[in-house]
Write a structure and sequence with these properties.
This protein is about 35% helix and about 15% strand. With about 800 residues, it is an alpha/beta fold. It has a six-stranded parallel beta sheet with strand order 10-7-11-12-14-13, with helices on both faces. Strand 19, helix 20 and strand 20 form a beta-alpha-beta unit. The chain is elongated and about 95 Å long. Belongs to the XFP family. One of its GO terms (biological process) is carbohydrate metabolic process. Its EC number is 4.1.2.22, 4.1.2.9.
Length: about 800
């Protein structure tokens, strides 16, 4: 059990002591190599040679942490702390050390003077830990390396955890970013019945690195009106109104925090009572609209209590010359001694006295909560068998339409552990079968004509990929599962978010105490080869290049050729952990090439030879290899192989399909790619290979540059040639059509022997374009093409 409540005056004293202790530990991490308890005057050798870290935001972070701890200790409430200010790492570390979590997770950081010395030394030091909140920071789910994602992470964490409150501190610099600005809308998707709550705490300290912040400089009444317009009930705490009395500030913030949490309790109690009445068939009262959730606006000085307080000069290192400047070093010592460490730590360096009265115990500590180490809470999904949803080979089917029916079953079986996120594209991307079993979450007003909106559901749609990807991160990092689906071209919006998350996974993999979490699965549809109607602005497959640049043990790129293969790779993505899974699949009907059984085996292998599609066995040799990676880029090599079979039957063609793009990478760098021996078996180095690739050709060359026979690899893909045109003309514009592929293949086998056929291919290509330009649609021989030799024949 947590400690019993203590008298208010003692409680405020304890909060102030915790705050001073955390401030002391924060300053010590930034500056000190030695002398952690200031048992003697600070000497130059006690100071780190390179001062890295940020003080300016830390005092307010420590204040909020101390008050949250006091309430947890009093009430046993479950809280998760999300630290938005980018370089608040030393504050988060300090509180985790005070809670004892550092010593539990890092036994070498003992709870004594020597451990404190190591704790200070490791911060922003070679071989140590980063300056920002990172995976190494106990209790963190928000990487501090890039601003703007804290509130989205917080709302994602609150989903489906009805007893959790996420205290999310938003920095006023961070509040200027686009992702954060859009994230204020995310409370529209929070259900007070089945979800937890987010308590945003906007810290206005007035400055960024060297400039004032916008929200800190607008009139208070405008700021209040702004957040009321966003649907919040703002509660303002202004430290400047009570002068230099820290107890008065603590009393103000304590009252504000209690008021906010009481409001959250009231909202949830009313909604849950209403839901119980409705379930019992009784009148349920008002409609399920969005309540006005509380938030706190906390005004504090920049660099509070430290040198250069209230100016941007306290943002990072207020005293940058303390190692060489005696006066600055004296100011540092006076600053740290003003925290009165002798009242906070005993002679061995352990926290003493009243601090323990507001320190939660066990998993209630915010630095030790399982919610911030989601692998401790994660359970495997109850996945329906994909055999119930497979499509017969030989019939056209929408890949995403097929997947949507399976996802509907996933939703039915996993009512509180799986969510689908998308920017208004669930229907557009043909996943709308999920609406047979669930709805979009929507707690704002509704109007006639709205469809699939309800107070609770398993689909969240908001026209901001930033917010959705951040909510998905928060959801999986706290132990659940989900998929983000979006248009391929606009996945670039989250390039840097995915990059930051890849870094999070990389760092987490080195920490044995962070248990594996569900994959961050991103499904890209409405892709480049079927965006002929929307035009050039919607034609960009470059997100694959971004993902492929990351540590390839932590990312996967899947390019399923048909509906059955999409089922196989998606099921695998939802079963595995600790990766970013990017899947690209079309929504329009395309041929289904593989039976479900063959698709599962093919997806597991990553790549393979499709003997049934080529002429290698008939001719007795392979003169050329035709490769496809993607759905449309698989149709075209197959059509090219059929042209060669009919018009140049003496040419031996091998057809290869790649579903797992990174399987062709360098096995000397990563474990995942196939071995050189397997690669050689498939691609036949020394034989020309014409590769139809979904994305930019350079990516295939980057992946395979050390493979045998790389000079024999000739990649066709998107060449930045697009417009509003027909689907086949899009292929022609980028030399990805069947005629271009067959022409390239025959040219590399023996151009002189096939000169007449090469001319016919060129003429056929020109005719296809002319037909499209005169009729506004592709020729029936293209749109109605079917492969004649299916594997079951």
């Amino acid at each position: 059990m947590s400690p019993a409540p203590i008298a208010t005056t003692d409680r405020i004293r304890a909060i102030d002591a915790w705050w001073r202790a955390a401030n002391y530990l924060t300053a010590g991490q930034i500056h000190l190599l030695d002398n952690p308890l200031l048992t003697r005057p600070i000497e130059p050798d006690d100071i780190k040679p390179r001062l890295l870290g940020h003080w300016g935001t830390s005092p307010a972070l420590n204040l909020v942490y101390a008050h949250c701890n006091a309430l947890i200790a009093e009430t046993d409430r479950r809280l998760l702390y999300v630290c938005g200010p980018g370089h608040g790492g030393p504050a988060m570390n300090a509180n985790a050390w005070l809670e004892g979590t550092w010593s539990e997770l890092y036994p070498e950081i003992t709870p004594d003077e020597d451990g404190l010395r190591q704790f200070f030394r490791q911060f922003s030091f070679p071989g140590g830990i980063p300056s920002h909140a990172a995976p190494e920071t106990p209790g963190s789910i928000n990487e501090g390396g890039e601003l703007g994602y804290s509130l989205a992470h917080a709302y994602g964490a609150a989903l489906d955890d009805p007893d959790l409150v996420v205290a999310c501190v938003v920095g006023d610099g961070e509040a200027e970013t686009g992702p954060l600005a859009a994230s204020w809308q995310a409370h529209t998707f929070i259900d007070p019945v089945s979800d937890g709550a987010v308590l945003p705490i906007l810290n206005l300290n007035g400055w960024k690195i060297a400039n004032p912040t916008v929200l800190a400089r607008i009139p208070g009444e405008d700021l209040d009106a702004y957040f009321r317009g966003l649907g919040y009930e703002p509660i303002t705490v202004d430290s400047g109104r009570v002068g230099d009395d820290p107890y008065a500030v603590h009393a103000l913030f304590d009252a504000a925090l209690r008021r906010a949490l009481a409001r959250i309790d009231d909202i949830q109690a009313a909604a849950r009572a209403q839901a119980e009445r409705a379930a019992a068939g009784q009148p349920a009262g008002a409609a399920d609209l969005r309540p006005r959730w509380p938030m706190i606006i906390l005004r504090t000085p920049k660099g509070w209590t430290g040198p250069n307080e209230g100016t941007f000069h306290s943002h990072q290192i207020p005293l940058p010359d303390v190692r060489t400047n005696d006066e600055d070093r004296a100011r540092l010592e006076a600053w740290m001694r003003s925290c009165r460490p002798e009242e906070l730590f005993d002679e061995r360096g352990r926290p003493i006295g009243i601090l323990g009265s507001i320190r939660p115990e066990g998993d209630l500590r915010m630095s030790a909560t399982p919610v911030a180490n989601g692998g401790r809470l994660r359970t495997a999904l109850d996945l329906p068998a994909i055999t119930e949803h497979g499509v017969a080979a030989g019939e056209p089917a929408s890949a995403t339409g097929t997947l949507g029916r399976w996802l509907a079953s996933v939703v039915e079986r996993n009512g509180s552990a799986f969510r689908l996120f998308g920017p208004d594209e669930t229907v557009s991307n043909k996943l709308d079968a999920v609406f047979d079993v669930t709805s979009r979450v929507w707690r704002a007003d509704r109007a006639p004509g709205d469809e699939h909106l309800a107070a609770r559901g398993r689909v969240i749609e908001l026209l901001s990929e930033h917010v959705l990807e951040g909510m998905l991160e928060g959801y999986v990092l706290t132990g659940r599962h989900g998929i983000l689906n979006t248009y391929e071209a606009f996945a670039h919006i989250i390039d840097s978010m995915v990059g930051q998350y890849a870094k999070w996974l990389e760092s987490s993999s080195d920490l044995d105490w962070r248990l594996p979490v569900s994959n961050l699965t991103i499904l890209l549809s409405s892709h480049v080869w079927r965006q002929d109607h929307n035009g050039f602005s919607h034609q960009d497959p470059g997100f694959l290049d971004v993902v492929a640049s990351k540590q390839q043990d932590l990312v996967r790129i899947k390019l399923p050729a048909d509906a059955n293969t999409l089922l196989a790779v998606t099921a695998h993505a939802l079963e595995t952990t600790n990766r970013i899974e990017v899947i690209v699949a079309g929504k329009h009907p395309e041929p289904v090439f593989l039976s479900l059984e063959d698709a599962v085996a093919h997806a597991a292998a990553g790549l393979g030879v499709w003997d049934w599609a080529g002429t290698e066995t008939e001719v007795g040799r392979a003169d050329v290899v035709l490769v496809g990676a993607g759905d449309v880029p698989t149709v075209e090599p197959l059509a090219a192989a059929a042209i060669i079979r009919q018009h140049a039957p003496g040419v031996g063609v091998r057809v290869v399909n790649v579903v797992d793009l990174l399987s062709i990478g360098d096995p000397r760098k990563h474990d995942h790619p196939v071995s050189d021996e397997r690669y050689d078996e498939v691609f036949l180095p020394g034989t020309p290979a014409v590769f139809a690739f979904h994305g930019y050709p350079a990516l295939v060359h980057q992946l395979t540059y050390r493979r045998h026979g790389h000079d024999d690899l000739h990649v066709h893909g998107f060449q930045e040639q697009g417009t509003t045109t027909t689907p086949f003309d899009m292929l022609i514009r980028n030399d990805m059509d069947r005629f271009a592929l067959a022409h390239d293949a025959l040219t590399r086998v023996d151009a002189s022997a096939h000169s007449e056929l090469l001319d016919r291919l060129t003429a056929a290509r020109d005719a296809a374009r002319a037909y499209a330009y005169s009729r506004g649609e592709d020729h029936p021989s293209v749109t109605g093409w079917e492969f004649a030799g299916w594997p079951q024949d």
